[in-house]
Write a structure and sequence with these properties.
By secondary structure, the chain is mainly alpha-helical. It is built from five helices and two strands. A hairpin with a 2-residue loop joins strand 1 and strand 2.
């Protein structure tokens, strides 16, 4: 997944290509209205696997619209890639879209924390004999 300078846009693979998903204030309001809960509650329901179908479907649809697709184009993608499919197939994507809207995503070139690395740091050999 890539990030955008807006810090809330998520790029993810969907419908055979990489698409931009973004929930702006307007989309968040619509999401909350359609799901009957605040965005934080929706996130909790997804994480606890106590979600409603709209909790999975609406972040994706509205994220596509917020990412630049027309509502008609977003609905077409939803019809072929979400509707009629098991909800679990899109659960992680829905959660990631919500997480990006609430917590943001790292801006390219600016690591979230300094000094973070997946590689263990090089250390010099010990000057003490391990048997001592």
């Amino acid at each position: 997944m890539k990030t955008d300078t807006s810090a809330t846009a998520l790029y993810a693979d969907f419908a055979g290509r990489t698409l931009k998903f973004e929930l702006r204030i307007g989309e968040i309001g619509e999401l909350e209205r359609r799901c009957g809960a605040g965005i934080g509650e929706i996130m909790v329901r997804l994480a606890a696997h106590r979600f409603y179908a709209h909790d999975v479907v609406e972040p994706i649809r509205l994220g596509l619209v917020g990412g630049g697709l027309s509502p008609a184009d977003a609905e077409t993608l939803m019809r072929f890639n979400v509707h009629g499919r098991p909800l679990a197939e899109n659960l992680q994507l829905a959660g990631s879209i919500l997480e990006a809207a609430v917590s943001g995503v790292p801006v390219p070139g600016k690591p979230a924390t300094e000094g973070t690395s997946d590689v263990a740091p090089e250390t010099s050999p010990s000057s003490t004999d391990p048997a001592a």
